[in-house]
Amino acid sequence: MIKKLTLFAVLIILAQFSFSQSFDKNKLDAYFDTLGQYNKFMGSVAIAQNGHLIYNRTLGFANLKERQTANENTKYRIGSISKTFTAALIFKAIEEKKISLNQTIQKFFPDIKNAEKISISNLLYHRSGIHDFTDDQEGYLKWHTQPKTEKEMLAIISKGGIDFEPDTQSDYSNSNYLLLSYILEKTFKMPYAQILDKYIAKPLKLKNTFLGKKINLKNNEASSYRFEGDWKLADETDISIPMGAGGIVSTPIDLVKFSTALFGGKVISQKSLAQMKTLNGKYGMGVLAIPFYDQAGFGHSGSIDGFSATFSYFSDGNIAYALTGNGTNFNNNSISLAVLSAVFNKEYQIPDFKTVEQSTTDLNKYLGIYASTAIPIKITITKDNTTLVARATGQSATKLTSKGNHEFKFEEAGIILSFNPTANQMTLKQGGKEFKFTKE
């Protein structure tokens, strides 16, 4: 929920390809076997075509302490993918003529600044100007595990103020979709959990999709983890805080069912769907555009605590893809690329996670502060015993893995740092782009 966009939101494949149900599933299984062997990912993926499941794979544990192995029905928090569900529910309310896109939020939240100018459409498009309550990290992380009432959350949002005037720009804000959750409850006169169940989960037979509560291991719900040399249990955000902005629990199998139904016009009308998919600034309403080859795909990504998730739908071939994870020590975008490349018969490589041991003395030649004329950041390279550490301007420190030949990787973000100690230079490689840095 906190991470605003993943690289998957700008995934682009340029070469032409065609879909085949006879893709090499053994190779894709080998890809996931490698991720599991090297503690790179715990979670599940699913692919469907025309509503029929053609591949799914699950890795790791739902709960490590209890040694509870995950399976295809293990339920994961999906973070901001919840926003797609919330947007669809808002259109349900619009279709029932309970609310309208252009009405302001003043009658619902009179104490929020600019409420008389902010429309429901502005909330859906992230164009309200309302400050994102998760942006205040130092404060948010002190209370995010504690239950909050609507009154308390509205006070927090009101205190955050506004970042810009309504409909003047796009800026992702979880506050928008929390407010939409409250609007749904006031409009339908029932809790968000019941609205979700009545209008989406039950009609589509999504048996593993619901608004979360306290994680229930007996219900095959996954705990989440962060990798710190080994998997460490992550904090658990109280669902009263994100609600429809990031509080839904689901599985990849349910998510591909949902996206197939949504983009097939079986959740909301085609007119409403067209509005959801129409971009205004950076975003659609509860969905993001995902260019893939020359087709316009749509989907969303999400993260909350140690959970991460992605879903996408491509009308060309009626392909639906979803990933949910409860532990990631790798770049999820790379996983998505591998799965989709397999399905669409594109070449991809099984990653090599073998590392090269370096002594603390070996690392000295890389230490220093590096600057680039291409991008306005500096990268400080330090070491922690035999591990090289990188810290970019305004970001936290990141431990790197040595691959030999003066090359180091940060797998989770798909970053490679290639050093030329003789020339006091370093090249940053990510997403097919390269940036030259020089030691100061």
Report on the architecture of this protein.
The chain folds into 2 domains: 7-343, Beta-lactamase, CATH 3.40.710; 362-439, Beta Barrel (Lipocalin). Residues 3-18 have low confidence and may be disordered. The two termini are 37 Å apart. It is an alpha+beta fold. Helix 2 (82-95) runs parallel beside helix 6 and helix 2 (82-95) crosses helix 7. It contains 10 helices and 22 strands. It has helices at residues 25-37, 82-95, 120-124, 137-143, 150-160, 174-188, 192-201, 252-263, 270-277, 332-343; strands at 41-49, 52-59, 61-63, 68-69, 76-77, 210-211, 225-227, 231-233, 248-250, 288-292, 295-304, 307-314, 319-328, 368-371, 378-384, 387-392, 398-399, 401-404, 407-410, 415-420, 425-430, 433-439. The protein is globular, with a radius of gyration of 22 Å. Helix content is 24%, strand content 26%.
